[in-house]
Amino acid sequence: MKKIKLKIPATVANLVCGFDILGMAVYEPYDEMEIRLLETHEIIIRHTDPFGLPEEPFKNVAGIVLLKIQEHFNLKNGFEVIIHKNIKPGSGLGSSAASAAGAALGANIVLGNIMSKDEMIHFAMFGEELASGVRHADNIAPCIYGGITLVKSTNPIDIIPLNAPDLFVAAVHPQVEVKTSDSRQILKKTITLKSAVEQWGNIAGLVAGIQKNDFSLIGRSLNDVIVEPVRSILIPRFDEIKSKSLQIGALGGGISGSGPSIFMLTEEKETAEKIAGMMKAMYDEIQIDNLIYVSKINPVGIEIVEEPN
User: Quick count: other Cβ atoms within 10 Å of Cβ 201?
Assistant: First the structure.
């Protein structure tokens, strides 16, 4: 039966002010996934990574996506999935979205391309729901579409692919776990009208800056007055890292997804590398293990490493 191998990128969600609606694909880190169509009805999940994720289909992010696809299309076939995660769960870099989006896109290919991108996103959101309790698409959409995406709506699904500016991303993942479900619980349930208006202005400015390749406007718009002030308290040295990144020359940045990873956008690779080095030194100093990444924005999203055979 058909088999395909995929390279599935990490993603940065929210992009500071765009909570649950903006997302961006990067090149590093990335997961690897192999999906094979079976003649039998079973779904087999195997992990080759060290993270101890459940392999029962109904408990696994990729597995639940495949179960929903199997049920919806009344398939007689099943799937075997081998996953090697390099995007650590709980990193804020779209680990669960990578598994969910990879399962949806891979299943679509081995089934003969029976779904649109938005249909794949619909099924992948079941994986995000399993992981975080919420069917959000801000990580899934850039995985499947590539580049930067705007999630106008998830019901009905309305995804708007945006321009992918020629920018670099410096990111650090301090090895402290922040679960998406936990980081959502600490958010305020109500906000002031003043904060809402300021946030709308930042989101509109950021989207306009992305579309116009106006880096100055992007930098001025990377400001969050609602979510970041609350979530940043969960991330050691966040304010100091952000301040020093701006001094070095970052356009701006903030928390990647729900954290604890932090990202910064820069115009030059050299600037991104300096910021990444500073981030590493900052966490080394307080003896927190960390991983750093320097990448360009990934305009492609999920890549096919090996075509169906």
Answer: 14
Residue 307 a catalytic site member: no
Q: Which among 28, 128, 149, 266 is annotated as catalytic? A: 128
From 180, 228, 266, 271, active-site residue: 180
**Rounded-to-integer distance, Cα 275 and Cα 182, Å:** 28
Query: What are the tens digits of pLDDT across the range 210-256?
Result: 999 999 999 999 999 999 999 998 899 999 999 999 999 999 999 99
Residues 163 and 207: their CA atoms lie apart, in Å, by 9
* pLDDT tens figures, 51-63: 999 999 999 999 9
What residue type is 2 in one-letter code?
K
Q: Is 128 a catalytic residue?
A: yes
| Predicted confidence (pLDDT) per residue in 196-214, tens digit | 999 999 999 999 999 999 9
Q: What Cα–Cα distance (Å) separates residue 232 from each residue in 44, 191, 257?
A: 38, 17, 11
Full DSSP string of 253-295: EEE-TTSS-EEEEESSHHHHHHHHHHHHHHHHHTT--EEEEEE
DSSP state of 297: B
Q: What is the pTM of this model?
A: 0.94
